[in-house]
Design brief:
The complex is a heterotetramer, with two copies of chain A, one copy of chain B and one copy of chain C. Chain A has two helices and three strands. By secondary structure, chain A is α+β, with helices and mostly antiparallel strands. Chain A is elongated and about 50 Å long. The mean pLDDT of chain C is 96. The chains are: A alpha+beta, B alpha+beta, C alpha/beta.
């Protein structure tokens, strides 16, 4: 069965607070970066999956995101299959 | 969702038509949207206690050492040496059902704010938890998430979690209970009450920017029946930021030490509208608030969202204008946002403006609006967008809801498991397998999987932590120590709520007695079903009565509490679940008090009367599925004598180990002590009127097991006799097996493995 | 006069009171150093205590190392002054390149608060000069990111130069080569995950941390006498 | 000055253990995903930066990564400017 690389990026849903991003944003000016804004910190998951075709690979990874990799209540995710 | 749209606004906000009428009557006109939103939250069950207030007045609340009783952010007691202790317990059940990690984390954050808003430094947390059965994947997800949330927030904010409970029962399947108890300590003279005294004083909002999180959370989530996946009622989840809260703690305590604040108030349910109006109402003053002064996290937030947002990690400090610069400097040092959002007036009204303060020169200035928002236009003449009598928000409706004893109660109580179990396990039956089965039930099994995820040592006070009957914290620079325990067995309350209420108080007080402390205060968290069900209100009134009776008998004042209604799994209300948190004081700690352990060569002495009481026991209900009958008798005088006897034996160090009998009965108590002491036992458990099985597994109240050096046995039994407490030497500690003649014979290693591995192995696949 | 030991406080630090209390109980004179001040106020030794500096956001210690005080701490260290990083303090010292390697999430991916056994491997350091090689100490750990990693070369170096100060006898977090604490080439900068201050009083269940804290006080005292 | 969106992905250097990835990989079969391998968990930092042009934006973000956003001892990073 062919193998596919899946790249998942998990971010906060709009409106959900991102304390880590906010903290980094507060820290940057002290390092001399006064021209930076809207810092958001997210998560990526890279994995390799066996599947008959790209679509079913995507479907499976999507299901993994719903169940384990992301928390749909507060997180959004994007999947890239290659 | 569609039909909800056609509903009138007040109903969508969870208000009844009668409540709307009361508002109109109060204002003499139709409320504005903002006013209606504020009333809907302030008059919600969660904020107004409208269904429970009538009963809570039953609790005894007075004692000479009580400095602050129920009604404030936290209860406060004087412990001498110029020190006072603040305690509070709260539930975060519904948010935790939606998002276990953040729900539990923000629960911890909220209760900590209650404590330091009194001027106390939070130094300990406890977490009484209730979940469905661990066989269920969703339950494992909730359990894992809640524990990580408490760990992730509590450890980081720097407040150790020194004890708690975890109970697993199907009644909590769709509705876990996440209660959090917090204790703080303060120099008595730093005690502050959140009052907005003094017209002209300023209200400074400290901490996080205000976002759209948890809009209507209090009213919607905690005040209406809530089913899993009920999207319509699900508010956006609040995310906790322990780092912000840690800085808030330090900043607020510095503010109070430096006498820069008249009072500080946390923002919790109902957010700014509640905090600002409450502080003013308590002082009989008025308050003007300008939404333009509130730092917002997102563009396009309207006044309703801004005033009712439940964004975490925010405090309101009431200060004198002369101190503003000093306050802002202190906030800057701790990297905390601080804006003047309100001013105290003598109008006795709560008024909300948008853009007034800059226009009329109230000190401070509008914060940068979020990217995407315009700066608010100055306006000095446009009328307030809300203008209500300040105390009217606070005194919501009072309901005397119908009360009815469930029709099923008699049948339930009649289903006594005793006879069946007596037939199944006659004298001589081998109970080894039964003991092992009990040690593996998650409610009884080792909780280290949980407690090792919690910092339970910070501040170097923890003399006894997770694993002890009661957590014991030394009070540095004094001879004193504090003991605390939270308990409450819902199955007993389900069978007979008044007795169950008594038993909850007795167990917590008994655990505290086992550390040598005398009880000085109690806080309670009352987790119940839908108060619109007369049966639930009956359970509630009976439990409150039972707890009150026990507190009176033991002389423990109730200094705070919290009520959580609408807890249900699907259509079924949860079993009534009161959690009693008892605080005890040890005057002379000395060395470490004896643990729940046995010492090889010691005599094993059982204090108190074992009776054939199997109703509601773990053995009958969990191992054998017989969950009817009557709970153990809750004799209050007997309890008081046993507690006093045990506490004095511990203070004198006449015992080398001590542990009370609770879940699983005497056999489990003995096994727990043996496992802790890594030594076997050889005992005979003959108690009048009990089969061996009943003697082993009945959960009789007010029974305590002691490990006693043989040279002291006579003296200990003498003291017991003098106190009128039955004492029996049941055997000795030694060897590597748990042996009860004619009952069980189990290798200590097998018992330990069963008890220790139960939860980890259930969770390993989680 | 007793040795002056500075205890660094970042926003989010939470063990500063404990370290201060334990050191003072043992005859040291602890004082706090605020992260925003670019000075160590001439103290003889420095502790970077545990906690969650800047919330541990982004990476543990990542933001803290830029605080003005860390510049002064670096100078103190390069001048041979004793510096001990405990838990989060260890993570900060690694991020600040005062110690090699980094600390990752525990292998079990859970926070761990429990008492573990440590074997003292090196005694020529600011933290172990009063201990004996092979001593086994029972001291609590309290961390989520205590899993020490570094590249092969660094590990070889640490071993060759005997810079592994304490090892776990039963590795709780997946740490490379059971490493619980390491030091710099001079032995004056030490980082460890376990909390000696939490084992500094029989009331708390263990006193095994006392030998480490008194070693630090000794190093500080010696430093004080050199400088006068 | 024009603003640029910077997208930074931080991953473990080859040879450096990835406990989070390993744990997820261990958990997946229990959920019925037996066809997944090489799970690696990384971090993303999204931010907005003012700069005269894309190159200097990249240069600045690169410097932020070296100093703060990534730990060169254990992490690699990739920057996308848009
Ligand atoms: N959620 C928890 N958090 C911290 N400690 C816990 C938790 N659950 C149980 N423990 C600890 O495990 C020990 C046993 O709990 P429990 O059986 O409820 O004690 P008891 O029967 O004496 O009330 C107690 O010391 C308790 O503090
Ligand atoms: Mg007990």
């Amino acid at each position: 069965m062919p193998v596919f690389n899946a790249h998942v990026e998990v971010t906060h849903l709009p409106g959900i607070a991102d304390p880590a991003g906010a903290t980094v944003e507060r820290a940057l000016p002290a390092l001399g970066y006064t021209n930076v804004a809207q810092v958001h910190i997210g998560k990526t998951i890279n994995l390799v999956v066996d599947a008959p075709d790209a679509d079913s690979a995507r479907a499976q990874v999507n299901e993994m995101c719903e169940r384990l990799l992301a928390n749909p209540v507060i997180e959004a995710y994007e999947i890239v299959i290659s | 969702m569609a039909e909800a749209i056609d509903e009138p606004l007040h109903r969508r906000l969870g208000m009844t038509d009668a409540e709307l009428a009361a508002v109109i009557d109060e204002l003499g006109r139709e409320p504005t949207h903002l006013e209606l939103a504020m009333y809907s939250v302030m008059w919600s069950e969660h904020c107004s206690y409208k269904s429970s207030r009538a009963f809570l007045s039953r609790f005894p609340t007075e004692a000479p050492w009580v400095l602050v009783g129920p009604g404030e952010g936290a209860g406060v007691v004087d412990i001498g040496d110029g020190l006072a202790v603040a305690v509070r317990i709260e539930s975060h059940n519904h948010p935790s059902a939606v998002e276990p990690y953040q729900g539990a984390a923000t629960g911890v954050g909220g209760i900590i704010r209650d404590i330091f808003s009194m001027g106390a430094r939070p130094i300990a947390l406890m977490d009484p938890l209730r979940f469905g059965s661990l066989d269920d994947a969703r339950t494992r997800y909730l359990f894992e998430g809640v524990v990580s949330g408490i760990s992730g927030y509590g450890n980081s904010v720097g407040v150790p979690t020194v004890g708690g409970e975890v109970v697993f029962d199907d009644t909590y399947r769709g509705n876990p209970l996440v209660n959090v108890f917090c204790l703080g300590i303060l120099p008595t003279e730093r005690l502050v009450l959140a009052r907005a005294d003094g017209p002209g004083n300023l209200a400074v909002l400290l901490g996080s920017a205000t976002g759209r999180d948890g809009i209507g959370g209090a009213s919607v989530l905690a005040s209406a029946s809530f089913e899993e996946g009920d999207e319509a009622k699900r508010p956006s989840v609040q995310v906790g930021d322990p780092f912000e809260e840690k800085r808030l703690i330090e900043a607020c305590l510095e503010l109070l030490d430096a006498k820069l604040a008249v009072g500080v108030q946390d923002l919790g349910a109902a957010g700014l509208s509640c905090a600002a109006s409450e502080t003013a109402a308590k002082a009989g003053a008025g308050m003007d608030v300008d939404v333009a002064r509130v730092a917002k996290r997102e563009p396009g937030m309207n006044a309703v969202e801004t005033l009712t947002s439940e964004s975490q990690e925010r405090m309101l400090a009431i200060i004198e204008p002369a101190n503003l610069d000093a306050v802002l400097a202190l906030a800057r040092r701790w990297e905390i946002r601080a804006t003047v959002v309100g001013r105290v007036t003598d109008t006795a009204r709560f008024r909300v403006y948008d853009g007034l303060f800059d226009a009329v020169g109230v000190p401070g200035e509008n914060p940068q609006p979020p990217i995407g928002d315009e700066r608010t236009a100055l306006n000095s003449d446009t009328p307030p967008i809300a203008d209500v009598p300040v105390e009217s928000l606070g005194d919501g409706p009072l309901y005397h809801r119908p009360v009815a004893r469930p029709a099923s109660q008699d049948a339930l109580q009649a289903a006594d498991p005793g006879p069946q179990l007596r037939d199944k396990f006659p004298a001589g039956a081998d109970l080894s397998g039964e003991l092992l089965a009990l040690l593996t039930t998650p409610t009884i099994a080792d909780k280290t999987w949980v407690s090792r995820q919690y910092d339970h040592q910070l501040f170097l006070n923890t003399v006894a932590g997770p694993g002890a009957d009661a957590a014991v914290l030394r009070v540095k620079d004094t001879t004193k120590a504090l003991a605390m325990s939270t308990d409450g067995k819902a199955r007993f309350c389900h069978l007979e709520p008044r007795t169950g209420g008594r038993l909850a108080v007795l167990e917590a007080a008994r655990n505290v007695a086992c550390s040598g402390a005398r009880p000085i205060a109690l806080v309670n968290c009352l987790n119940f079903g839908n108060p619109e069900h007369p049966e639930v209100m009956w359970q509630f009134s009976e439990v409150v009565e039972g707890m009150s009776e026990a507190c009176e008998a033991l002389g423990i004042p109730v200094i705070g509490g919290n009520v959580s209604f609408y807890n249900a799994s699907g259509a079924d209300d949860i079993h009534p679940t009161p959690v009693a948190g008892v605080l005890g004081l040890i005057d002379e700690l000395g060395d470490r008090p004896p643990a729940a352990t046995l010492r090889a060569g010691d005599d094993i002495v059982v204090l108190g009367a074992i009776r054939p009481e199997l109703g509601g026991s773990e053995w009958a209900a969990v191992v054998h599925g017989l969950d009817g009958g009557m709970p153990p008798e809750a004799d209050l005088d007997r309890a008081r004598t046993v507690h006093e006897l045990v506490a004095s034996l511990v203070r004198e160090r006449s015992v080398t180990g001590v542990h009370d009998v609770s879940d699983g009965g005497l056999a489990v108590a003995l096994a727990e002590m043996a496992m802790h002491g890594e030594v076997g036992i050889k005992v005979e458990l003959n108690f009048d009127g009990c089969t061996p099985a009943e003697a082993c597994f009945a959960e009789a109240a007010s029974v305590v097991v002691c490990s006693v050096d043989p040279k002291d046995t006579a003296a200990v039994c003498g003291e017991a006799a003098a106190a009128g407490v039955p004492a029996r030497v049941v055997g000795v500690a030694g060897g590597d097996r748990l042996i009860a003649k004619g009952a069980f014979d189990v290798a200590l290693t097998d018992a330990t493995r069963a008890w220790r591995d139960a939860i980890p192995s259930l969770m390993s696949g989680a | 006069m007793s040795a002056r030991i500075g205890v660094v406080v970042f926003p989010g630090t939470n063990c500063e009171l404990d370290v201060e209390y334990a050191l003072n109980q043992l005859g040291g004179a602890a004082e706090r150093l605020w992260h925003g001040d670019d000075t160590t106020k001439g103290v003889d030794a420095i502790v970077v205590p545990g906690g969650f500096a800047h919330g541990d956001y982004l990476r543990t210690g990542a933001i803290a190392r830029f605080s003005p005080v860390m510049h002064a701490v670096g100078e103190h260290a390069r001048a041979g002054g004793p510096v001990v990083g405990i838990c989060n303090g260890f993570q900060v010292l690694c991020e600040a390149h005062l110690l090699p390697g980094a600390l990752q999430k525990n292998a079990g991916l859970k926070f761990l608060c429990e008492t573990v056994a440590l074997r003292v491997e090196t005694t020529s350091t600011a933290l172990t000069n009063l201990a004996k090689p092979g001593d086994v100490l029972r001291i609590p750990i309290n961390h989520f990111e205590g899993n020490y990693v570094c590249d092969e070369r660094t590990l070889a170096e640490l071993r060759a130069e005997e810079r592994i100060v304490v090892r776990y006898t039963d590795n709780p977090n997946g740490s490379l080569d059971d490493i619980a604490g390491i030091c710099n080439a001079g032995g004056n900068v030490v980082g460890l995950m376990p909390h000696p201050e939490r084992a500094s009083d029989p009331l708390l269940g263990s006193s095994d941390g006392i030998v480490l804290l008194t070693s630090l006080i000794a190093a500080a005292t010696q430093r004080a006498t050199i400088l006068v």
